[in-house]
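Task: sequence in, structure out. Protein: Citrate synthase.
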Amino acid sequence: FIDVRSLQPKTGVCTFDPGFTSTAACESGITFTDGDAGRLLYRGYPVEQLAERGDYLDTAYLLLHGELPTKLQRRRFENEVRHHSLVHEQLIQFFKGFKHDAHPMAIMVGVAGALSAFYEYDSSAHSPEGQLEACVRLISKMPTLAALAFKTSRGLPIVYPRNDLGFAENLLYMMQAVPCEPYKVDPIRARALEKVLVLYADHEQNASTCTVRTAGSSQANPFACIASGIAALWGPAHGGANEAVLRMLMDIGGVDRIPEVIARAKDRDDPFRLYGFGHRVYKTFDPRSRVMKAVADELLEATGIDHDPLLTIAVALERAALADPYFASHRLYPNVEFYSGIVLRALGIPISMFTVIFSVARTAGWVSQWREMVNEGQHKITRPRQMYTGKLERSFVPISRRG
Ligand code: ACO
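Result:
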């Protein structure tokens, strides 16, 4: 890395780096990725260990505070998250204003941003207590908003959060298709969802996190910043890939069509891409993809859904792509999304909710990155330069002389 602070702007020197492929925009102590080795660490802990031995709230606390919580800290954090899990009744009215078939991500962008109308935040003070309260509110309310988006998009009665349930358990509980009491969430499914949430929790300066930081750099309200992150996450090149992968697998329909799909992905004149493959940082297996595949296998076996035809297609597609010289030469490997759709489908989550689940999980990363940035003594408003390619200065032509 070259420290661009050493390049004097007064001399007019600037870097041209579309997509920021080689530009570090911040210093961060939260998440480390090693794209060549396929390693991902949250505050130094391998993501595989956190997924296997920890859970989402441990991970959220770790990302926010830098250390895993002690027993007492964990209890307090859990209580805070539970305390904030309800949303203002008036906010619930917002959901009724969306078109009946609105995509739940469109709803999430709106309602997460609307939280800024309910919870004041003094950006000029940025008090430590105010910051933490906003972060916890967001982590806590996102599952409730997600379940509300799902329920209202289906015209189903809403289910309020339950404070005696775990984080993932509560999310599954609120999303239940047919509300009935007592409703029991399958612990196997709840545990699998906890793992998914841990895998999605943070990923350094990806497009959505970078967007949250950019919005936050102007001192915007944190709830509005997270809404901007949700919008950036939605695209199929980013978080929307989990939905795109599953739709692609359904579209393929059978293993006999795999050669045709691989040929299309390699064709430079065809815009088609193999969703769930390739990553800006990882030039080998995304470590999360291996854990996700293991979760898919365990879940399908444990729930008795021992056969999902889409898993058969996914496994064969992965094998065919990995054996193909195009993918090897472009260093394209499965990313976290390749198997996530299979897992979410086995959890009974509808496809349109896949990216919403991702946004719930990524909230811990977004708020931690936002908090890190606002506490940085000399953070600057994000304001990249450009290479101007337009017209040079010219004189205004009155409409009578424009022909
Ligand atoms: N299928 C086929 N070819 C691909 C794919 C793919 N999935 N991904 C990249 N390539 C090729 C490109 O065509 C390009 O080829 P060329 O050099 O011959 O022109 C080369 O690999 C480099 O591609 P870029 O788009 O420049 O790579 P970049 O790092 O900008 O993009 C990205 C990374 C967006 C993830 C890309 O690999 C992609 O579109 N993948 C599919 C979508 C996807 O799965 N996104 C989820 C990412 S994980 C996440 O966000 C949580």
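The mean pLDDT is 92.
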